[in-house]
Specification:
Blueprint: H1 9-14, H2 19-27, H3 44-53, E1 57-58, H4 70-74, E2 76-77, E3 79-87, H5 92-109, E4 111-120, H6 132-145, E5 149-153, H7 158-168, E6 171-174, H8 175-186, H9 190-205, H10 238-273, E7 278-283, H11 289-297, E8 314-319, E9 325-330, H12 340-345, H13 347-354, E10 358-364, H14 370-383, E11 391-396, H15 403-412, E12 416-418, H16 427-437, E13 443-449, H17 454-463, E14 465-471, E15 476-482, H18 484-490
Parallel strand pairs: 1-2, 3-4, 3-5, 5-6, 7-9, 7-10, 10-11, 11-12
Antiparallel strand pairs: 8-9, 13-15, 14-15
Helix pairs in contact: 5-8, 8-9, 9-10
């Protein structure tokens, strides 16, 4: 028996007739009339964004002791979370920036942040991450606010999470679990989903637990009620069975990723065989990498003001102002304390960055701590052995950044370009800087090409540098630079 008012399903459904229009307005509040939108004319990124926004999470929906409509039931309820951090080093501003980033991560995962607290300690408590007195205070906050989840700003041991859940009586997750959840929501490609699942299983394997002795029970008799065929015998416990299944799944995912890695390496070798330079766009999450990729190549990938909006790498071909072909690749965004499980799982994808000829390092100029972003990204680049690749620092969001911050970054990073992907400011300067950093062909040549060898002239435009070109009665007189393979072919046509 409840105290809810009388409920009529027909009346409630009639009140939602105009919800379809509202859903489209959520995607583009200031856009055209929904009836005039042609989905076929949208880019792939705009279609992905519309699909992501089609089912919104709602706040305040409860299923306990309430009658709810069928439409309300289909909505996803926002988790109500409390953020908890431990400040061990750095300044107060560093601690507040870390908590602000954790709040953005929590909202991206689909939760409603109710409160945030952090504690100054030399080291985290080995039992509960925060001290005993702080746990009692946190319990009071949880009970008063009605929160159902506590998110800890750190990588916690399984025992710490278990102790906190036993004391708080609500779910407790750490920063690593939160980031893995966001990746699981946003991964779209088959390779991306396999990489995220591999990272999740590696994370979960050490955190298996059950209520009471649930995972400690053994199969009895002739394995009746146990695993039966395929089990290790009546002495195998439930947790051992689950861990063995996880290990089997991990091995399968690694085999699949190894096959996908072979396909990626084949494409990379083909580009290297044709001497096509490659540029990788790397940087902190939500710094504007996908927006810059769209500016450079008209790729039309998804752009959204949220953390880890795009995870799947995208490679597009473009040309320099003098006609040379090169590729531009967008990569997964980085973040402080990026879980090592994700670095290992995405290693085959991140190897694209290590093998590129130039890294365009994008940093958010409007962020409170852009220097921290630069350091966090370079730490990951060092882990994947990409620290020796030439780097061009691009300070994005110049339209919203403080001029003093931009001046400070210019002084700190001499090889810097300031742009705004939103307004187009500085894009031409960035393109010129990228073209100047691309590797130059190594061999100088002079050749008189017959007019029937237009294919060689076209390859020179795409792969080489033409210093001068003159059309004569005997053919086209060309001077410039080319790679060794192309230069050897041109030796057949001396002047």
């Amino acid at each position: 028996m409840t105290n809810a008012p009388d409920f009529n399903l027909a009346d409630s459904l009639d009140a939602t007739d105009d919800w379809d229009d509202d859903a489209i307005d959520l995607v583009s509040p200031d856009g055209p009339d929904p009836e005039e939108i042609d989905l076929d004319e949208l880019t792939t990124g705009e279609q992905d964004l519309a699909a992501r926004h089609a089912l919104r999470r709602v706040a305040g929906l409860r299923t306990e002791l309430e009658d709810i409509t069928e439409v309300e039931y289909r909505q996803l309820r926002l988790e109500r979370v409390i953020l908890v951090g431990v400040w061990t080093s750095g300044t107060v501003q560093d601690a507040e920036n870390s908590m602000a980033e954790l709040a953005l991560l929590a909202e991206t995962a689909g939760s409603e942040v109710l409160d945030a607290i952090y504690q100054r300690r030399q080291t985290p408590d080995p039992a509960t991450f925060i001290g005993r007195g702080k746990v009692d205070g946190l319990l009071e906050i949880v009970q008063a606010s009605g929160a159902d989840t506590v998110i800890l700003d750190g990588d916690l041991a399984p025992s710490q999470l278990r102790n906190l859940e036993d004391k708080l009586k609500v779910k407790a997750i750490d920063r690593t679990g939160l980031i893995l959840d966001i990746f699981a929501q946003h991964a779209k490609s088959k390779e991306g989903q396999a990489q995220v699942e591999l990272a999740q299983l590696n994370y979960m394997k050490q955190r298996l637990r059950g209520w009471g002795g649930n995972l400690s029970r053994q199969a009895g008799g002739r394995v009746s009620g146990g695993e039966g065929i395929g089990g290790r015998g009546p002495g195998e416990t439930k947790i051992e069975t689950d861990r063995r299944r996880i290990n089997t799944k991990i091995a399968k995912l690694r085999r699949e990723l190894k096959e996908m890695k072979g396909t990626r390496e084949t494409k990379r070798q083909e580009r290297q065989r044709n001497h096509i330079p490659s540029v990788s766009i790397a940087g902190y999450t939500n710094a504007g990498k996908s927006s810059l990729l769209n500016r450079l190549t008209d790729a039309g990938v998804l752009v959204e003001d949220s953390l880890f909006a795009t995870l799947d790498p995208t490679t597009r071909r473009t040309t320099t102002t003098d006609g040379r072909i090169y590729t531009v690749s967008d990569t997964v965004g980085f973040v402080r304390h990026l879980p090592h499980q994700l670095i290992e799982a995405f290693r085959s994808t991140l190897e694209e960055v290590a093998d590129s000829d130039l890294i365009v390092h994008v940093v958010d100029g409007s962020h409170p701590d852009p220097e921290g972003q630069l350091a966090a990204v370079r730490e990951v680049l060092a882990d994947i052995h990409a620290s020796k690749v030439p780097e061009l620092v691009v300070v994005n969001k110049a339209d919203a950044a403080d001029p003093m911050v931009i001046a400070r970054l210019r002084a700190r990073e001499p090889h810097t370009v300031v742009v705004s992907a939103k307004t187009g400011e500085g894009i031409e300067d960035m393109i010129a800087a990228i073209e100047a950093e691309l590797p130059r062909p190594s061999v100088e040549f002079e050749a008189l090409l017959p007019y029937e060898r237009g294919d060689l002239l076209n390859r020179l435009h795409q792969q080489g540098e033409i210093a001068s070109m003159e059309h004569t009665g005997d053919g086209t007189l060309v001077k410039g630079r080319a790679n060794a393979d192309l230069a050897s072919e041109l030796e057949a046509y001396p002047i």
